[in-house]
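Q: What would this complex look like in 3D?
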Amino acid sequence: MDTKDLPSLGIEALAELLRRRQTSSEEIVTACLERIHRLNPTLAAFITVDADGALRAARRADRSRAREHGPFHGVPFAAKDALWAKGLPATNGSRLFADFMPAEDATVIARLRAAGAILLGKLNMMELGFGPTLHPPFGTPRNPWNLERTTGGSSSGSASAVAARLVPVTLGGDTGGSIRLPAALCGVVGLKPTRGRVSRHGLMRICPAFDCAGPLAASVADAARVLQVIAGHDRRDPGTSRAAVGDYVAVTARGVEGARVGVVKEFMESALLKDEVRRLVMDAVAALDKIGARVSEVSLPLIPHASAIYLGVAEPQAAALFRPYLTTRAAEIDVLPRRRLLAASLVPASVIAHARGLGERMRAQVDEALRDVDVLVGPTTLSGAPPIPASARLRSRDEAWMAAVAGRSVFTNPFNVTGHPALSVPCGFTGEQLPVGLQIVGRYYAEADVLRIGAAYEAVTEWHHRRPSLA
Amino acid sequence: MADLTPEQVRSLAAAIGLAITDDDLEDVTFRLNASLEHLARLDALEPPSGPTPLPDAG
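A: Here is my prediction, written as structure tokens for the whole assembly.
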């Protein structure tokens, strides 16, 4: 195999080549670094590339592979710049934190390193993880499928780096869809685990009630491999659960026979959903039906209100968190997140309390629906990737509403409010050849169900094999 | 429907120690009015009843 093809391989293939000594970790890391060197000036996927550190770790891994067999031994990964990595900057995509150097690893990074993985660097993101950024301080992330289109976000580089095969797997953060949205728009797999399944220690926060860390990968199986390593209780994050961690990798080979799949009526009937995305999702549902899933329609009556509930809870929390920076260093924050944070600062507490109550009711509604079906499915996004934002100017409150949450995360934010695990898998391409995703939502701590059904769907489709021409 | 003027929005912000520049003011006003309008629609929805509801305010 030509070493330049190594970054295109999945975790299992790389591990097999390493086991057979047909390649070395140094060769894999070097191939990834060469690809990053060639493509990152265009894609702006990475903020920091730790070439020296990664090569040193790769040589150590090669020397120790006879006696150490972690599941990721010698395999590279990269992480959103909202996650701490000891000795590397963690900018959170913002000038505010350009000089912040964490003294320790985020738990998810520490666990991957303990499993033998090698951190290549830190990935670009929307500023503070808080929606579109007009002038990203570390370069404008570009979608590998069309360089004039957004990657989505906020885990922008985490998705584009996998799509462009700069690195096999990445870590992202998801507060309203920030893993699933860019995964869908860049044509890769992204998983938001159940609230409490994965530690958030070392994840720079936006909304503590909703923030999650999770994997992005080129296949469901590779996302499962990452989850296997990062899931589980962490004493440094009291919000993590002691619920047993399943065998997420084994379930990806189990198929979908007999699984009960509920298509969310309110998603499919949304007036905002583009027809071609609706058709692609219906095709995906038909494919699941054909391979043995039992498909039915499910109604979640609060879903049309989910964006307002999300806005009422998440945005004021974010505004409160960033208040010290808004009062003293507002001019250093990009115009779009700054204006959004300022508006969210003025939402009255009575509204926030009511929205929180409705969020609890929405969780009960989703739990109830998941008594009759194993998973819920629907689109991840309204459309393929939109153009990169070119203007900050809003002309009406309707535009403001769409710019806030309703125009982007309408299908993803409900499951940050409710806490359920949600996976996005590629399910086709629009007429403009832009990828879109199928979202699969499961019961609390039932990541195994969403991964099993996602993998079964992936096995009978070819979307995840397509590569953008630059890759 | 919420219909705060830009000056009202600026005053609300000032009350909690936030300064809004002239450049930002129109946009922040659109955003806040949009948020309040959509959040007001939630008023018609009942949250789950808590274990200790407060007496009716009359």
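A: To summarize the key features: The two ends of chain B are 24 Å apart (CA to CA). Residues 22-40 of chain B form the longest helix (19 residues).
Q: Very helpful, thank you.
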